[in-house]
Amino acid sequence: MAFDISRRFLLTGSAGAAVAGLTACATSSAGSAVAQGAFTPENASVENPYLLGAPEGVALLSRNENPYGPAQSAKDMIAYAASKGAYYTSGEATMMLKEMIAERHGVTPDHVALSTGSGEILSAIALHYGPNGPIVAPRLFWDTTALYASNLGMAEISRVPLTAGMEIDLPAMESMVTESTGLVQLCNPNNPTGLVLPGDVIRPAVARMAAKTTVVVDEAYIELANDEEGTTCIPLIKEGHDVIVTRTFSKIYGMAGIRMGYLIAKPETAQKIQSVVMSWTPSTSIAAAIGSYNDMDFINFSKGKIVEAREMVTTTLDALGLEYLPSQTNFVYFKSGKEANAVQEAMASRMISVRGQYMDYNEWTRVSMGFIEDVDRFCKALPEVLA
Amino acid sequence: MAFDISRRFLLTGSAGAAVAGLTACATSSAGSAVAQGAFTPENASVENPYLLGAPEGVALLSRNENPYGPAQSAKDMIAYAASKGAYYTSGEATMMLKEMIAERHGVTPDHVALSTGSGEILSAIALHYGPNGPIVAPRLFWDTTALYASNLGMAEISRVPLTAGMEIDLPAMESMVTESTGLVQLCNPNNPTGLVLPGDVIRPAVARMAAKTTVVVDEAYIELANDEEGTTCIPLIKEGHDVIVTRTFSKIYGMAGIRMGYLIAKPETAQKIQSVVMSWTPSTSIAAAIGSYNDMDFINFSKGKIVEAREMVTTTLDALGLEYLPSQTNFVYFKSGKEANAVQEAMASRMISVRGQYMDYNEWTRVSMGFIEDVDRFCKALPEVLA
Asked: What is the ipTM of this complex?
């Protein structure tokens, strides 16, 4: 694959860019493959093994994916679902997944709503609550879904500055929240900081805010937190608070391309948001989730790889004397002391993909974990890049 | 599988019911499978081969599916996408599919928007145009997506009576359309009637209505029309009219569970509606579409099976002297002379699933094509059921 193609990927290969790319990449290389008839009925297997995933030779460390996924248990179920792909997703499969989710979290299945990735259900939440008043959120969070509603004129985002330590400033958020707030949105662990608000800090604050409006906590990375059970806000839902927790199969489960997400909430909330969700989730996605949801061997394997990679990164950062935030996710946000976009460019020239600048955090870089050998390349390149 | 489970399926197994079933089937049999640990990491392949698709022994002729799908070319690409499932769908794959679609229809890729099934993009269209004024549509059409927006308070549906022959009454629709109409929605071929408005009839009427408001034509079944090229409204888009055409992989492609749909429209319309689409379409769905879109062997095979089945049904109806509408789809709408719900019950008792009553059309039954042997069972059962 020519470097100019990889280069575009290296600099725009974030999830957001991939979506924006739906309309943007009119000069894609794909046209030639079509012209060559790469996908004929006689030879329908993929001609370009890099059509999905990282281009050849690229260390993909920019999108918080888990390249060790999907689990074999997920792939087996996808093959089954493909063989039954002629049929609309069954109520039985949907209910089976809801029951598995409900069982783990100690709720009944009517507390669960499903969507094609948690991005969709977060977008549905933003669309539903946005017209009621501003979405109060930390200055830095995964804002893609709030922006979805905002871009449609259905929501306004009110961002609350972080603390000096780049933590979510819960007291400041609480002081902003009134009964005319449309929604409070938190991401815990947060993205791109990787920081966790512990349960004994976040839960009382969320409970107080939920007395005034609905609070959604995006827990996309919580399976990677040191104390998942002690951190999640799901107990607040069981106590009857007006709280929604969202989860995803894109991170620890390594299924970002398969798209499966869910929420836990009061039954009436779950039902309402389910009616706002726009897509019917593919049977392949639901089947993959059924196959791997309780695959603890895979989950533990993935978590082990992520922790190993994170320690490689922090050891490197320590050796270089660089500041970083203590991550409980599959990425690390660190202060390189150089312009983030220049760091991204320099990494790209070494076929390593990291994130560019967030907002005005011009000296901070987010690096995702990935294959151990790719993280190793990053660790070896970093001293050169910052030299 | 116990008959009581099949019975519920037989009477509610429509696509709409399956979706409603997301919250409704709390007494599902699935719980026991979970309790039995059917999906352990060690044994993740499906324990119940009927989790998706028709329950054992059921002739599934109620949901307009094509059980001969997906094509092997689609399944091969799903397996590839599953192996790369860790990664967010690439812009390259998305663009490749758009280019394939654009090439077939003689437009540029910026005329194409993609969604997780055409239901999603039709819902996005209803959500976008609904607030501008009523959605003018025939009394009978595939109204699920207009109802999505209507149920959210974002649209109002204005239904125009059919002609005495149950055709879409285009002159009556035209007389309803003004510049304060939000959207005109047509389904051609129509569902559940199976009737086609020929190109020389629909195109001039759509062009005139599109001078006043946006017109969407749902062409989910058009690959099954006798003269696809002469029937489609895509030429109107090329002429610059304010027209949207939607297509799906759920019908001729046999991928209702995989969920892939698209629209063709003016670039600014395609871009706008893409921004309303809520889900990010799974890589498995996009890959399946890439694999099979130009698989003419499969398409011709499927069309052959559907035409063969349709002739079996109409021969049976002729022999019984029953009225039916001349279908150019994979279903036949016929006047049994008996209560539609009683016909459905009687068929269910024979493990055959057909649709129940539509609106007040109490003596009309819709039967979908399917496996030839299942259609044969229907044909043999019909005289008994109506005796």
From this structure: 0.92
